Amino acid sequence: MYDALTEDVLEAKYVGRGIVDGIECEHLAFRNLETDWQLWIESGPHPVPRKYVITSKAMTGAPQYTLRIRDWRSDVPADNASFAFNPPVDAKEVDSRALLAIDEIPVGVVGAGGK
Fold it and tell me: 10-19: per-residue pLDDT in tens?
C-alpha cells in the first residue's frame, strides 16, 4: 500500500495532530504533479486511516474528494458473501484496454497550466 500511495510523490509533510470524528489523528500531506492529498491516521495502538482528502490540480476549481472512515470492521472474513461480485444477468465483459481513454476530464478540456 505504501508503494502505491507514495509513487510520484514530490513532497510530503507531517502537519501535526488533529481530530477526525472525535478521534485524535496524525495529519499527513502529500503533493504530486496532478493532485494534493491528505491523510489522517488514528493515533495510538490502532493506526488506521480515518480521513482521506484528494484535491485535483488538473481541473478548474481544484475539486476535492473526501473519504471519512468511521467504522473499521476487520472481523469480516475475506470469503464473506458481501465481497462476492455478482454481475447482473445482462452484464457484458469489457476489455480493460478499451477504457484507457476514459478520464474525469472530458476530451478537449485543457488541464491546469495549459492554454
Answer: 999 999 999 9
